[in-house]
Amino acid sequence: MIFKLTIFIIFIFHSLVFGEKNDEFAHFVDDLNTIATKTKQNIDYMPSTVTVLHSKDLTSLGVNTLFEALSFVPGIETSMLQVGWKRLIARGMNNPDSFIFDKMKLLIDGVSVSSKFYGTIYYYMDFPVDLIDRIEVLRGAASALYGDGAYNGAINVITKSASSKNTLLNVSYGSYDYRNVNALVPVSFVGFKGSIDAYFQENNQKLGVSKEFIYAPSISIFNRKPESDERLKNGGVGVNVKNENFDFIARYNYYKSGNYFGFDEALEPTIDDKSNDNINFHTQLAYHKKIDNDITLHVKTVFATSKVSFDITPRQEVPDVLPFDIELESGYKDRTILINSELEINKFENHALLFGLEADNTKVTENYYRRNFDFLDGDTENATFIDNGNIVTSNSGFIKSDAGREHFASYLQDLYSFSDVLMFSLNIRYDHYKRFSSNWNSRVGLVYDYNDKLTLKLQYAEAFRVASFIEAYQSFHALLREGNNNLDNEKQNSYEASFIYKESSYQVLRGNLYYSKFYNTIDINDVGEKDYDNADRRESKGIEVEYKIMPYESHELSLSYSYTDSTYNTMGRTYSYKVDTPGIASHLFKAYHLFKVSRDFSLNSTVSYIGSRDDNEYGNVQKYDIKSSWITNVSASYLLNKNAKFRLTVNNLFDTKVTLPSYRSRHKYLPRPGRTVLASLHFTF
C-alpha cells in the first residue's frame, strides 16, 4: 500500500512541475450558495460549515451518483445497510442497532424529498451526477433553518435543469451490466423557460458470499447460488421552469432494488419479484414579488406523494420445522401538502431580515401488511401458517391507522453587519406538532475577517428530529417492531469554531472543530416494554480540514481529512455500556487531482482512506472489526469533438478488498465490489 501511495504522490508532483497558472478554476474560492442562510452568499462569509461540490469536477473524476459525490464531503462516511440502503454517517453519529441513519434533510432544487416514513433518503442516492450542477452540503445542526429532518445537516442538490440552456445526452455502460442513459432538454412555453430532464439506470449486480449467509444452511432448502441480490432499476423525470414571478418544479423518482443480503441478513431463497420499491413525486409552485426595493415576498405551495413497498422472504423452508417459505409483503403511501411564505427585508441599515411561516399536513392513503403465517416463535421458527402457506392480508396494516402529521412553523433570520469585518447571524425557529412536542431552535454565529487572508467563525446551533412513522406508528406483527407514539423528540446542541485561510486566489485552507451533544436519541430497545425508546445522552466531537490548490493552468489538487470521536450508549440489551465510535471510521482522508494533459485529454485520480471500524458487542456474539483501506480511482476523458466527450473510469484500481460492518455482528462483514469499470459518452448540443 505504501508503494501505491508513493506512485500517486510522484504522479501528482511530476504533473504539478510541468504546468502554468490560470484563473479557469477560481470558482473554488468564491462559491455561492443558499443553503446556509437561504440567501446567496459566499460560503466563507456565513457562520455554518458548508461544502460545495461542482458537477464539472465530479464528472471529471468519474463520479457517477449523488452517493459517490457525498463521499468527498469532510465528516461524512458513506456506508450501507444489509438490505442495500445507502447511508450517510455524519460526524460519527451512527445508531448500529437501528436503521434510521441519515438524519440529514435532502432537498432537490430547494424542495425537500426526505421521507417521513423512514426518515431516510437512500432512494435518491443513485441520482446521476450528469444531471447535477452543484451540491451544497451544510454540516451540523440545521433545524433553525430547515426544521425537522435537518438534524445532522442539510443537502441541497441544484440540478442542471434549473439553469442549463443546452441539450444534454449521457450514456454509460459498466461492470455488472450497468446501464445508464440520461438527458436534459431546454423548453419554452407560454412565457416560461427552463428544462426537462430524465434518466434511467439498471444493473445486474450480484456478489458471491459464503454459505454462512444462508439461514440454517445445513438443513434448510436453498436452491440458488449463495450471492447477494443487488439488482437496481432507477429512473426519474424532472421539470424546472420559471418566468418573471413564478417558478414551477416537478420531479418523479422510481427506485427498485433487490434485497441484497436479506432484511435479517439471511439470503432469500428466491430473488424473483423480491424487492423493495420506492416511488416519490413532488410539485412546487413558487411566487416571487418585489414589493419595493427593500422587500421581497416568496410564497410556495408543495404537493408530494411517497410510496414504499416490500416483498421479502426472510426464512426458507426447513424440513420438519417450516413446511413453507415465510413470506411477507407490506406497503405504505402518503401525501403531503405544504404552504410556505417568506419576506426578505433589507430596509434597516446593516440588517438583512427573513421572516417565514410554514404549514404542512401528511396523510396516509395506503397501508397494508400481508403474510402467510400467523405466529412465529422467535429463533425456533415454529410457525402457524395461513391457508396452506398462501399470502393473506392482515386485519391491521403495516403501520397503525392513526398515523399522520400536522405541523406549523415560524422562523426569523437576521444577518447583521457590525462593520466591514464583523458579521453576526441569528436564527430562531418554532415548530409545533399536533401529536408531538413543540420545539424552539436557535442558531447564533459570528464571522470575523481578521485580515485579507484569514477569516474566523464561531457558531452555536440547535436541532431536533421527530420520530419517523415507523418509529412512532409501526403495527405489531411477527418479525416487525411495534412503534411508540410517546417518543420524545431527539435534540442536539452543537458548537463549532472555524477558520478560512486564503493565501491567494489559487489556494485555500479551511478547518473547523465541532462538539455536539445529543439527547433523547430514538433507538431500538430489545428488552424493554417498548421496541423503540429514547436513549441517554450521546456526544460527538472532531475536526474537519480541507485544502485546495490550483497552482498551474492544467491542475487542481484537493485534500480533505476528518477525525471524529463519538460515543454510543447502548440500550435494550441484557446490559448497557458506552461504546466509542461504534461501527464507524474515526479517520477519513480524501484526495483528488485533476490534470488536463492537453486541450482534448485529461487524466484525473482520487485516493481515499477509510480508517478501521470497530464492531459492536452483542452479548456472546463474536466481534468482527473492519480493517482500514486505501482506494484509488482513475478517470480519463477525451474530447472527441466540440459536442462529444468519451470518459473511461476505473474504480478501485488496485482491486482492494472492500468490506462493510455486518448488522449486529451476524457475519464477519458485508462484501463490496472490487475493481469496476465504467465507460461513458457525453453529448452537448
Keywords:
five-stranded mixed sheet; mainly beta; 5 helices; single chain; 39 strands; about 675 residues; 22-stranded antiparallel beta barrel
Helix content: under 10%
Q: Compute the separation of the termini in Å.
A: 43 Å
- Overall pLDDT, averaged? 87
> Count of DSSP helices?
5
Indicate the overall shape.
globular
Q: What is the CA-atom radius of gyration, in angstroms?
A: 25 Å
Q: Any low-confidence stretches, pLDDT <50, length ≥5?
A: 2-29
| SS class | mainly beta
Largest sheet: 22 strands, antiparallel, barrel
- How many runs of DSSP E, i.e. beta strands? 39
Describe it for me?
The structure is a single chain. The protein is mainly β. The strands form seven sheets. The chain has a 22-stranded antiparallel beta barrel. The longest helix has 16 residues, at 2-17. The radius of gyration is 25 Å and the shape is globular.
The gist of it:
The chain has 685 residues and is mainly β. The protein is 5% helix and 52% strand.
Layout of helices and strands:
Blueprint: H1 2-17, E1 32-33, E2 41-42, E3 49-54, H2 55-60, H3 66-70, E4 76-80, E5 86-90, E6 105-108, E7 111-112, E8 132-139, H4 143-146, E9 153-159, E10 168-174, E11 178-189, E12 192-203, E13 232-242, E14 246-257, E15 275-292, E16 295-315, E17 326-345, E18 351-371, E19 373-377, E20 382-385, E21 392-393, E22 404-417, E23 422-433, E24 439-449, E25 454-465, H5 469-473, E26 490-504, E27 507-519, E28 522-524, E29 532-534, E30 538-549, E31 555-569, E32 578-580, E33 587-596, E34 601-610, E35 629-641, E36 644-651, E37 659-660, E38 670-671, E39 676-684
Parallel strand pairs: 6-9
Antiparallel strand pairs: 1-2, 3-8, 4-5, 6-7, 8-9, 10-11, 10-39, 11-12, 12-13, 13-14, 14-15, 15-16, 16-17, 17-18, 18-21, 18-22, 19-20, 22-23, 23-24, 24-25, 25-26, 26-27, 27-30, 28-29, 30-31, 31-32, 31-33, 33-34, 34-35, 35-36, 36-39, 37-38
